[in-house]
């Protein structure tokens, strides 16, 4: 087993006034050659957008873009004609493919919106752009890892153009839960949204990230109520 630990306070940070963002991997003005990616997981941004503010319309190509709202209401608009509001409990995915433009705005005038912005390199270039979103029920996540992203359209969650599987779990204190890798050779990047847990010989805390590869399974043990995001991805595209 190999692993790499990214402590929360080691992330890149940019405060633009309207946007307060923490970057697990190199992004925009934050550049660290040792923190470019974890396999095909290229971007993991922890964003907070001020009331009424947001990202103006901008283009993307050949990237799988996943948004996970944590607090508040995020309004999405894109060149495919989609207009949607996503909230905590929703998952949004967009395949940029041959090219798409979109905007993301805090719909609230009285509170910040907080969300994760995640980019995954696709396994196939120049696909037709597409958009999808789902809503999770609280019981979906209770003391289990619930699949939210996969490469298979018929599977649970949203499908993307990559051999990647994402899971979310909200675990109570004192539980032990296994995770078995979906594909040989993949790695798993664990991001702690809340709480803490023991995994792969490490104790990880809120907003820590831990990448693990060259193993087939892991076991998670919680010391307190915890919310975890698991991102299984190919280690090479």
UniProtKB/TrEMBL annotation:
One of its GO terms (molecular function) is metal ion binding. The keyword ATP-binding does not apply. The keyword Transit peptide does not apply. Binds 1 Fe cation per subunit. Residues 148-233 form the Quercetin 2,3-dioxygenase C-terminal cupin domain. Residues 11-120 form the Pirin N-terminal domain. CDD domains: cupin_Yhhw_N. It holds the Pfam family Pirin. Fe cation binds at residues 58, 60, 102, 104. Its cofactor is Fe cation. Keywords: Iron, Metal-binding. Belongs to the pirin family. This is Pirin family protein.
């Amino acid at each position: 087993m190999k692993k790499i630990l990214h402590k929360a306070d080691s992330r890149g940070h940019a405060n633009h006034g309207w946007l307060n963002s923490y970057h697990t991997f190199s992004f925009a003005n934050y550049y660290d050659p040792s923190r470019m990616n974890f396999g095909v997981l290229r971007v993991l941004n922890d964003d907070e957008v001020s009331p009424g503010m947001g990202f103006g319309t901008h283009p993307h190509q050949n990237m799988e873009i996943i948004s996970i709202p944590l607090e508040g209401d995020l309004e999405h608009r894109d060149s495919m004609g989609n207009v949607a509001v996503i909230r905590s409990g929703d998952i949004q995915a967009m395949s940029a493919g041959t090219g798409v433009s979109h905007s993301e705005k805090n719909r609230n005038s009285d509170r910040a919106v907080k969300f994760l912005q995640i980019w995954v390199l696709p396994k196939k270039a120049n696909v037709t752009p597409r958009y999808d979103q789902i809503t999770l029920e609280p019981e979906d996540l209770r003391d289990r890892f619930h699949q939210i992203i996969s490469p298979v359209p018929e599977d649970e969650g949203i499908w993307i153009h990559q051999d990647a599987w994402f899971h979310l779990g909200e675990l109570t204190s004192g539980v032990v839960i296994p995770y078995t890798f979906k594909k040989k050779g993949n790695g798993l990047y664990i991001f702690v949204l809340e709480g803490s847990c023991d995994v792969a010989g490490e104790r990880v805390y809120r907003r820590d990230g831990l990448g693990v590869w060259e193993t087939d399974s892991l076991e998670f043990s919680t010391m307190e109520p915890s919310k975890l995001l698991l991102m299984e991805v190919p280690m090479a595209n």
